Amino acid sequence: MNCQRLKNWVEERYDVEEIKDFAKKKLVPTHKYEIWYYTGGITLFLFVIQFITGMILSFYYVPHFEHAYKSIIEIVTKLNMGWFFRSLHHWGAQLAIVFLFIHVWSTLLLKSYRKPREFLWFSGFMLLGISIFFGLSGYLLLWDERAFAAVKVATGGAGNLPVIGNFIKAFLRGGIDVTGETLIRFYAFHVSILPLATLFLIGLHILLVQYHGMSVPLSLEKKAHKEIPFFPNLFYKDLIIWLIILGIVVTLATLVPPEIGKKADPLAPAPENIKPEWYFLFLFQTLKLFPGEILGLNGEMIAIILISCGILFFFLIPFFDKKSNRGEKSPLFTWIGIIYFLYFVIMTVFGFVS
Ligand code: HEM
Q: What is the homologous superfamily of the domain 34-276 according to CATH?
């Protein structure tokens, strides 16, 4: 079948003109902050890499506490290009989280969450939570001593939440301690529940972006600004940026393959100076600031409550920032965004060096 016949075949069945018309009409504002618009697309691209490499790895990974570690060693040493796909999956995850954080702070500081985009913000926030849980659940699948200890600390921390803490801890662990049951649970989360939730939420997120169109920063909203077609102008730019990101992930995956520690031994004491993945360091460091007991109450529980309040405030920001919703400047919320950012960076750096 030549190209013309294929085109006719499709056109007889589908209203291609309508799709072309829609593509022509999709306009995107262009201004000095437009670089931040690419961060969502980069995250999306990295998620696609994660889905593809994850599917390849799942053909060979064995989710059982006696075989999991060995199956990864075999993927890396015996499978053709196995080390490369594992490394791509590792670096894709790291960069996805980096760009996700950049995307969150850019939409926060540009106040893109303001009316009528509240649900866009909420769907994005849920994607952030899911992405972090993707990281934690994937980390345990390696079943080495560092991952084992990190998951023990993280699920133990969740247990400090008042009222529901013990339920969450037992639910995540599949029992009272981190065991082979936890591995099966985390595997189920990592390869089925979280990907399904992600697909649904990404679909919703993109649909909402399409519905509302891209926001214009408050400072430019009342001034004249240009709009350019998304196809092909911005779409080509997206493709070029994705190609550069692919180059970076492939280079990192080739030159810096992730390490594999010693196999986890549930009966052995936790290794010394154990640290979680970098994106958990600010939480880990915050917990260290609190003494064991404050006014007769469990210090860790107080820390977890304060952290949860901070996260809840972040989630509900579109409701608190009334000025932005009215189209007025709201420097207070710019400062809140900057303080959150600085806190995250400073605590992460402290976590690395201490
Ligand atoms: C898997 C994770 C995510 C993906 C794939 C994703 C993807 C996208 C894409 C492609 C856009 C349109 C272009 C852009 O502004 O970059 C967008 C816009 C947006 N995203 Fe996300 N996003 C994710 C997570 C988040 C998170 C965690 C938040 C915030 C908590 C968020 C909030 C927003 C907002 C408010 C907009 C609208 C920007 C505007 O209209 O100016 N997103 N996202």
A: Cytochrome Bc1 Complex; Chain C (1.20.810.10)
**Which amino acid residue places its CA nearest to atom 42 of ligand 1?**
124
Q: Dump pLDDT digits (tens) for 78-113.
A: 999 999 999 999 999 999 999 999 999 999 999 999
The rounded distance, in Å, linking the Cα atoms of 230 and 235 is 6
Distance CA 197, CA 194 (A): 5
- Count other C-beta atoms under 10 Å from residue 32's C-beta: 9
| Residue 107 and residue 124 in contact, taking contact as beta carbons nearer than 8 Å | yes
Which residues sit with their C-beta closer than 6 Å to ligand 1? 37, 39-41, 43-44, 47, 100, 103-104, 107, 112-113, 117, 120-121, 124-125, 127-128, 131, 202, 205-206, 209, 214-215
Find, among 30, 19, 42, the residue nearest to 241 by Cα.
42
Biggest CA–CA distance in the chain, Å, is 79
pLDDT in tens, 130-139: 999 999 999 9
* Claim: this prediction has a pTM higher than 0.90: yes
